[in-house]
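Task card 7
Instruction: Convert sequence to structure tokens.
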Amino acid sequence: MSDQLLRTVLGGVLLLHGLGHGGAIGALAWIGHFGPDNTGDWHAARSWLLPDLAPSTATAIACGIWALALIGFVAAALAFWGVGIPIGLPVGAWHALALGSAIVSAVGITLFIGNWPAFNTLAALAVNVAVIVALWMRWPPETLFGA
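Output:
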């Protein structure tokens, strides 16, 4: 595989994973507007860890987590490709953005596990784990965060 194709694929994975979090936000909006009927395996936000949260609060927390992951992964993909750096991010910022977004996403999946179809949950978790492991192995914390 050529370096250019590898860069395209890796950046594409980050971008698509980020946009996938937008799909979760869309599903929550759909459920909020049309109700929980006929949503297949998609359910309103409910956290097993915080079961007493009001549905609106759980939805707000879930949407906040998914929005952070969406923005972070999209920014990581753009920085990885060297696009969209005018906001002052160094080119290498994609490492920390991708790692932080994967951690945020994994925390969200853990908090709201069982709300989404199993395939979506497992696929998103697999991408998060792959990003965390790959970045941790290739760029240890001291190189990512200057420790």
